[in-house]
Amino acid sequence: MFNKNVRLLLQGDSMMNEKLHETAKKLFRSEYEKLTKHEKHIAHHISKRTPISENVIQEYFEKLTLDQKMADKVASFGGSWAFIIIFVIVLAIWIILNSFILIRLGSKSFDPYPYIFLNLVLSMIAAIQAPIIMMSQNRQAYKDRLRAEHDYEVNLKAELEVIGLHEKIDLLSQEQWKELISIQEEQLNLLSRLVKDVEKNKQNNN
Fold first, then answer.
1. Distance from C-alpha of 140 to C-alpha of 146, rounded to nearest angstrom
2. What span, in angstroms and rounded, lies between the C-alpha atoms of 191 and 183?
3. Helices 37-48 and 2-23, interaxial angle, to 10°?
4. DSSP string spanning 119-150?
């Protein structure tokens, strides 16, 4: 029983390989081994008659680590109006507090003009934020490339399927024309026989 199952599996694999090679020759006019990664992927789906559309971005998000998700959130917040408004409010409070309020209260300001400590804080924020934003941009570029590659595969598969349908329709129309021509030839033969029979009958009557 085990040997029979193994033989069936091997036969199925060999048939699948033959189908893949036939699909490659028919659609890509090339050997299967010479196809690109995307073309092989498309050939597999066409041979198995399975859909190629999938949510590649959702799968990519599921594979992200915790630090990558946090970096994306930081970059998203850093490029929002909420961050700009909060940042402007903090700067305004800092400047007003050190330039007016503390001086009027008779206290010593902790960061007097030209706000050296504020410049240090802003420089540190920029130094930390810049690489985080760059990492997020790299992931965004990778997501765009994934989406573009997937769109290319879907479009190419659809185009190949349409070409295959056109070829099938052309074959069907050719076969139908052949059948019509053969039917017309048979009708003409029947008519010619009828004409000959009619002429013979006339001759016999005379």
1. 10
2. 12
3. 120
4. HHHHHHHHHHHHHHHHHHHHHHHHHHHHHHHH
What is the rounded end-to-end Cα distance, in angstroms, of the chain? 83
Q: CA-to-CA distance for 146 and 138, rounded, in angstroms?
A: 12
What percentage of the chain's residues is helix, strand, coil (to nearest 5)?
A: 85, 0, 15
Q: Are 134 and 146 in contact (CB under 8 A)?
A: no
CB 42 within 8 A of CB 26: no
Which positions of the chain have pLDDT values less than 50? Answer: 1-12
Alpha helix ranges (H) inside 24-111: 37-48, 56-62, 66-78, 81-96, 102-104
**180, 94 Cβ separation under 8 angstroms:** no
Q: Note the pLDDT tens digit of each residue in 66-96.
A: 888 888 888 888 888 998 999 999 999 988 8
